User: What shape does this take?
Amino acid sequence: MSRKTISGMGAGIIILLLFPVFLPRFYVYLASVILLYGLLATSLNLVLGYGGIFQFHHAVFYGVGAYGTTLMLTKSGLPAIFAFITGPLVSAAFGLVLGIICIRLSRLYFGMLQISLGSLVWAIVYRWYAFTGGDDGIHGIPMPEMISSPKSAFYFTFIITIISLYIMWKIIRSPFGSVLQGIRDNPVRSGMIGINVRRHQLLALVLAGFFAGVAGSLFVVVDNSVFPDMLFWTLSMEIVIMCLLGGWFTFLGPMLGAAVIVGLRTFVSMYTVYWALVLGIIMVLVIFFLPSGILGYAVEKFERGFRKPEGGEQ
Amino acid sequence: MLEVTSISKTFAGFKAVNSANLTVRKGEIVAVIGPNGAGKTTLFNLITGIVKPDSGRVLFKNEDITGLQPHEISRKRISRSFQVVNVFQRLTVFENVQISVLSRERMTWNIFTPSAGLAVKETDTILESVGLLDKKNRTTALLSHGDRKVLEIAMALGGDPEFLILDEPTAGMAAEETSRCIELIKMLSRTMGLTILFCEHDMEIVFGIASRIMVMVRGCTVIQGSCDEVRCNEAVQDAYLGGSDVCL
Assistant: This one.
């Protein structure tokens, strides 16, 4: 990483840290939601952009993480820290189970089966009033004092998001990350150089599930509530669009995509109920004009400008 | 070293490989030749586990490897290159070979060490031996066709094979690239002691480097023998060369 990138990141972090000091409460909430959605989209991108696995129903793991944390908080009586660890672990376990079932199928078929199984999980959460609160969800979840105010919730979300992003960054740069990208580009070849393709994909799914669960738990902290919509497939589509819009072959693209989508959703919803229509139009525009996403496009432009002086041998 | 006995594979009623036989001894360079659609690539896919045979057996160093998964077969130190270029498009030349080396060294489950510093020496050595070291930081998508075919071989070498299978290694190469590639194959056999099985359409190349030849027509083995035996065999001339008056 160059000095420029590091100082740019440092400046960004400081600006974000100052957010709660200057901005009204609503914007602090919005910033927290953007961060956790960004984390969620990045966790999807671990398998989608870097793994080439069409995980179409990623929201399941987000919702399961949120419900896992919530149910531990409200029903177990154990210290809150256990709840925040349990949520992501349950998500990872779901990632493993759904992964084992779906990974036999390739590409689109994987995605289709995943949507079906994920919808099953949604239906259970939606119907099981005694345990999950059914379609009402659970509201007013008690939080430890330390993270109960919007400001402290923001800082908590911020810190956890940065740590999670850092770990995912490390994973992508590790041998496992290289192998995952190799499998994305060419599964047959990967097998032929001695890589057990399915098992590596499975580990990626478990890791993605874990970090989606972290994002889900953060939502509980920020919003103090959970509801079945968190597992609904339309949210999954929104996360996929975040990745595509921001740039699914870049690391920070999904975070950018999340900021754009969540920001737009919030402001468009003030004027019209047809948010889905706007989202659809955005999707079409991205496919036609920015196939590699906003950040992907910027990186391409930058690299091209950068390479020109060398004589443009390619 | 490799013993394929009456192996068969049918795709939707079409007999791609029909009880073919093949023997490769240690240190040999064996060529498989035959007209288009004779089943050469399918035979290689059957040996490397990408396609499962309907019947027949594959023995490697007296061990039955029939029906194993590709990654299991790769672990027995059998590597292959592909006819249609089959590399990791979005990664650099270096990363392509590095993944192969990391896989052989069983480091693919490591999720926290940055891979940038791992297996650098081994990877560079391989890139140097095939002459791609100066292009190591290029994205594969930007390579010329010839270089990509060579990268294919470099990736196969990353697994430190004893037995190397090359599927039309020089297909589509320019004349100069072809002769460099032939030198490379000879070098792999001579200095690294690899046993090599390859298929090729260019007869000059086949007779130039092969120590033995297997002829395949419509999925069947017509003959296995030395270059001279194959050259003079009438059945081969009839079936493959379109008439006995053609002399090689």
In short: The domain at 78-160 of chain B is CATH 3.40.50.300 (Rossmann fold). The first helix of chain B runs from residue 40 to 47. The two ends of chain B are 29 Å apart (CA to CA). Chain B touches chain A through 41 residues (CB under 8 Å).
